[in-house]
Structures are given as C-alpha cells and as structure tokens.
C-alpha cells in the first residue's frame, strides 16, 4: 500500500529517487517496486556503490535463508531548494534527496515590489552556494499556477496576475524551477516523506489566512484542467459574509483568519473557533463523500489552536459522512512555517518519482541532473 508508481526515469534515476523516498531497501525490493529485472538492479547499484552515491547498510531481518542486504543513500545523490513566497516574507530551505532538512533562511519580502523575484533569486543563490548536485528549485505560492513547469501565477494574496514567476526565476538562476500552489506542494511532501507515505489517495486541507486543498489520487497530484483544482476556500457554505474574491459565503470568508479575528473581538474566542470547526468539519465531510480519499490531513496555522476548533469539528465531521466513510482517519499536523518551503523542495524531489504532473522540460532537466 502507498508505493509510488508511474516513475518516468532511467533505472539509475529511479533507484536513487526511490531510495530517497522510501529509505533503505534490498535489491530484490527495488526490482519489485520499479518493475526492473534483478540483473538490471544489481548492475546499476554496483555502479552507484562505486561512485559513493549508495552504501550497503545492515541486513534485513529474515524468516529463513540469508538476510537481504539493504542499500541506502549516502547523502550525496542530490538536493533541492524550496521557497515559500508570502505577502511579506519568504522562507527558503535546502533539502536532501531523502528529505533531510539541511538549512533554512527567512527574509522580509514585499510581494508587490517590482524586484520581488530578484529578492527570491538572491535567497535561492545563498542557499545553493554550497554542496554537490543541486537538482533544482521549487517555489510555492498562495494562488493558482497554470503548470509547475511553466509557473505562471495568479494570486490575490500576492497581488499577482499572470505573473511569469517560473520564467523569471529560471532566467535569474540558470536552474530548473518548478512553481505550484502551496497546498499542492505540502501534499507532495506528505506523499514523499510524511503522513501520506502509506496512502495512494488522500487530501490535505490547510487552514490559516485562507483555506486550501490538495488532492492526491492514485499516487499523484490532481491539478485540474487549468491548475486550479483545490480552491476549497471558495466553496459556498453560507449566504455571507463577502469573500475577498467578491463572492458571498465562501468557506474562506467564514473560517479564515481575518474573519475569526474580527469575531473574537465581539465573542468568546472558544465559541468562535468551535463554530468555525463545525463549519469546516461539515465542508470536509462533503469532500470525503465526493472524493473518497483514504485519509484526511489537516495542516496550517489554525492547527496551533486546534484544541479550540476540535469540539465543533469532532461533532460536525462524522455527522455528515456517508456510511462507507465513517471510519476515515483524520490527522491534525503540528505546524511551523518551514513546512511550506519543505513542500516546495518536494516538487523537485518528487519529480523523478512521477508524483508531480505538468513539469515538462523542467522535469526532464531535474531527472537528467540526478542521472
């Protein structure tokens, strides 16, 4: 359950990427997961061992016969830079192929400034200045992105309309660059290294300033016809108030941070957040009934106060599920800002594993750098 399939890469790249995502595996297990012959796996791993990219680890426990020799990455095969762009700051991280965080930096940023992307490029350059084999740069933003390999962004929170973020960063950095919605990036990181490793079908809901959704189906992201799948925050749930998008009664307008701050000035905060939890629980139950995921992961800044959201959510969510879904696991994740940037790096690290659709030529370049 939960194995990655659909890997479009050379055997060498596929083996490195799979070891990065799954951890130590035997040659037999690599062959099974990747659909390669044992002879091919043996030949490729022999070269990787000689190059110092892979190492032999402890033998796996055996129920009889000779224990299998496990292989793992040395830490040298590759790394990625991930950047989360927000309205007033950017967070950048350097992440190894196996998901290990190497460094993190945060800088102030004015997303509306003409030189905003130059500032982001300088942050990337500082993070990329040391270490071998940089595979590429992932960038995540609050908004709709046409395709990760193109990176044209429409973002109301950033004040961007048809911003060619991908092209501008590629020109400044001379590196492969992938750009996607921030919750999509978070879901990729969950799929590769987090709570989603055991599932091929799950949803990630992020609640904070707004409300976002990412859908993973059959092991890969669902992006929709225009890249806008997951605009869950703009699902109508009430007659009012008016949302920043101009419509009335969007989920984001009811449970987003700005609305809740205003309401807590007039009412008991515990009551306000419990009511928000009830609205959110009902809305997520509707998603579960429609999409049929195997698990729900809730993230975002709101989870820092989940003890106040929980009473409303725990009553509302199960009450609106259909019978087949009444035992679906819901996991609430601890939160810190670097998770967004770690997810952005996951856009690059997940490309050789076939998790991220729409990478195009940028994806080809990332796979070539890992080869």
From TrEMBL:
Provide the GO MF annotations for this entry: DNA-binding transcription factor activity
Domain of life where this protein originates: Bacteria
Q: Which CDD domains does UniProt cross-reference here?
A: HTH_ARSR
Instruction: Please name the InterPro entries in this protein's record.
Output: ArsR-like_HTH (IPR011991), ATPase_NBD (IPR043129), HTH_MarR-typ (IPR000835), ROK (IPR000600), ROK_cs (IPR049874), WH-like_DNA-bd_sf (IPR036388), WH_DNA-bd_sf (IPR036390)
Record-annotated HTH marR-type domain positions: 11-55
Which SUPFAM superfamilies does the entry link to? Answer: Actin-like ATPase domain, Winged helix' DNA-binding domain
Give one Pfam hit by family name: ROK
Q: Which family does it belong to?
A: Belongs to the ROK (NagC/XylR) family.
List the PANTHER family.
BIFUNCTIONAL UDP-N-ACETYLGLUCOSAMINE 2-EPIMERASE_N-ACETYLMANNOSAMINE KINASE, ROK (REPRESSOR, ORF, KINASE) FAMILY
Q: What is this protein called?
A: MarR family transcriptional regulator
Its lineage reads: Bacteria, Bacillati, Actinomycetota, Actinomycetes, Streptosporangiales
């Amino acid at each position: 359950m939960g194995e990655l399939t659909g890997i479009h890469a050379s055997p060498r790249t596929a083996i490195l990427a799979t070891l990065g995502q799954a951890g130590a595996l035997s040659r037999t297990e690599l062959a099974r997961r990747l659909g390669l012959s044992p002879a091919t796996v043996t030949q490729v791993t022999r070269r990787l061992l000689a190059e110092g990219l892979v190492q032999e680890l402890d033998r796996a426990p055996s129920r009889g016969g000779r224990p299998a020799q496990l292989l793992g990455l040395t830490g040298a095969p590759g790394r990625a830079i991930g950047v989360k762009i927000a309205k007033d700051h950017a967070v950048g991280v350097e992440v190894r192929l196996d998901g290990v965080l190497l460094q993190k930096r945060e800088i102030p940023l004015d997303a509306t400034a003409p030189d905003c992307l130059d500032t982001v490029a300088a942050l990337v350059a500082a993070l990329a200045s040391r270490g071998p084999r940089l595979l590429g740069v992932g960038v995540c933003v609050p908004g709709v992105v046409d395709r990760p390999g193109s990176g044209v962004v429409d973002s109301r929170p950033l004040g961007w309309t048809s911003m060619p973020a991908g092209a501008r960063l590629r020109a400044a950095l001379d590196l492969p660059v992938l750009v996607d919605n921030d919750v999509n990036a978070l879901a990729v990181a969950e799929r590769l290294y987090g709570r989603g490793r055991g599932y091929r079908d799950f949803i990630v809901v992020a609640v904070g300033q707004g409300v976002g959704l990412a859908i993973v189906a059959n092991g890969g992201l669902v992006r929709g016809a225009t890249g806008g799948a997951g605009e869950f925050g703009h699902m109508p749930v009430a007659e009012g108030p008016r949302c920043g998008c101009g419509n009335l009664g969007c989920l984001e307008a009811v449970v987003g941070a700005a609305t809740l701050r205003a309401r807590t000035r007039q009412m008991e905060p515990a009551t306000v957040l419990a009511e928000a939890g009830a609205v959110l629980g009902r809305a997520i139950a509707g998603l579960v009934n429609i999409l049929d995921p195997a698990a729900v992961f809730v993230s975002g800044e709101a989870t820092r106060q989940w003890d106040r959201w929980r009473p409303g959510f725990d009553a509302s969510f199960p009450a609106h599920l259909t019978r087949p879904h009444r035992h679906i696991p819901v996991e609430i994740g601890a939160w810190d800002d670097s998770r967004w940037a770690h997810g952005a790096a996951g856009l690059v690290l997940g490309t050789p594993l076939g998790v991220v659709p729409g990478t195009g030529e940028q994806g080809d370049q990332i796979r070539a750098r890992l080869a």
